[in-house]
């Protein structure tokens, strides 16, 4: 046996797709004491009603498996749309919904059509299924949605095979690019063999949802993702929803474990869905802080891009890695977009409250001398 063969034999090899996978990696430690503007989270925490509900969980509830009755109904009531509860799938965060979609629908040799740059978890999910990825770049300095190119790749694919999945992040993370609901619905209607997934994680900051216009009976290949992570402040509890045709929701739910969402997340979700006013107030505060931040950046002549979402991109004059490190030194985390197509050299800065953005801006001006 050669050394290499020994190394290979030392542990069971995974599927070839997994062996070659570059997993989505995010810095997961040491963030707690900092001002966290790196993951687009809610920066102040959930509604006090959520905290109260969690504190009131009796000990015996921890000992039993979670129960989900009424939660789909609560999601439908919160959306105020004529949906049936079985059109709502419950997942351990939208990340788990994305994983399940690929698991259920993405097969070896099939294609994921998406945009670039976009949320970093779509690609590894496609790769682990052995799928090809066609990622179409955003257009121009304003990172406009490449609608004509997406339509072409969807309806006239070079391989002759329609893409299995089209993933549209709206607004897009990290460019903030917005797309009106109508063209998305048109794409879905024109491509019935493709599952068109609209990741609406940051929709609360734009209001551009396809849900109010969607007719899932006529367009069963449309699926919408929503989460309580970024607005309601439940990121740490992990709960997200996939909304669409009941049969599609059922297929995606089949590939998850029976108790993937824990009891704490269920309790918190009920309370968060009941207190929509808290979320609305938080979103309004973030939008005000975002407008203020954009004004400061413009006045100081800092190149930036702000569109949808609770985040913006800015391009430091100095070395972005050094600026990132100096901000961290000052107790503030942002996300360097190093190596990302079109936005290499930028920093993505999540938006929190006005007060938090004032703190960020003061540190940034010190670091950059602007
Ligand atoms: C576009 C997008 N989709 C999905 C997710 C994951 O959301 P969740 O926390 O619900 O798993 C994120 C998180 O950053 C995101 O930015």
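Q: What amino acid sequence fits the structure above?
A:
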């Amino acid at each position: 046996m050669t050394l290499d063969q020994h190394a290979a034999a030392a542990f069971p090899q995974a599927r070839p797709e997994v062996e070659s996978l570059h997993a989505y990696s995010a810095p997961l430690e040491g963030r707690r004491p900092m001002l966290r503007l790196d993951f687009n989270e809610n920066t102040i925490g959930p509604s006090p009603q959520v905290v109260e509900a969690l504190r009131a969980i009796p000990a015996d509830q921890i000992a039993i498996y979670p129960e989900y009755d009424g939660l789909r109904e609560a999601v439908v009531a919160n959306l105020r749309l004529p949906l049936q509860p079985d059109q709502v799938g419950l997942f351990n965060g939208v990340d788990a919904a994305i994983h399940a979609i690929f698991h259920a629908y993405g097969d070896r040799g099939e294609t994921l059509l998406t945009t670039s740059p976009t949320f970093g978890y779509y690609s590894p999910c496609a790769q682990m299924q052995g799928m090809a990825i066609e990622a179409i770049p955003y257009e121009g300095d304003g990172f406009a949605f490449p609608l004509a190119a997406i339509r072409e790749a969807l309806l006239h694919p070079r391989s002759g095979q329609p893409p299995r999945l089209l993933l549209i992040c709206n607004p897009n993370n990290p460019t903030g690019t917005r797309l009106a609901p109508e063209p998305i619905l048109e794409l879905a209607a024109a491509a019935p063999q493709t599952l068109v997934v609209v990741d609406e994680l940051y929709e609360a900051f734009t209001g551009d949802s396809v849900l109010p216009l969607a007719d899932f009976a006529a367009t069963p290949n449309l699926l919408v993702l929503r989460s309580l992570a970024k607005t309601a402040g439940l990121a740490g509890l992990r709960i997200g929803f996939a909304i669409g045709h009941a049969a599609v929701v059922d297929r995606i739910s089949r590939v998850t474990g029976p108790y993937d969402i824990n009891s704490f997340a269920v309790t918190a979700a009920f309370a968060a869905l009941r207190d929509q006013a808290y979320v609305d107030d938080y979103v309004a505060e973030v939008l005000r802080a975002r407008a203020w931040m954009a004004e400061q950046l413009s006045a100081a002549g800092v190149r930036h891009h702000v569109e949808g979402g609770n985040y913006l991109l800015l391009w430091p004059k100095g070395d972005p890695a050094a600026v990132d490190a100096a901000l961290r030194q000052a107790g503030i985390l942002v996300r360097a977009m190093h190596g990302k197509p079109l936005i290499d050299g930028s920093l993505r800065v999540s938006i929190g409250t006005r007060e938090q953005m004032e703190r960020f801006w003061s540190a940034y001006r010190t670091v950059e001398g602007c």
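Q: And what stands out in the fold?
A: The first strand starts at residue 35 and ends at 36.
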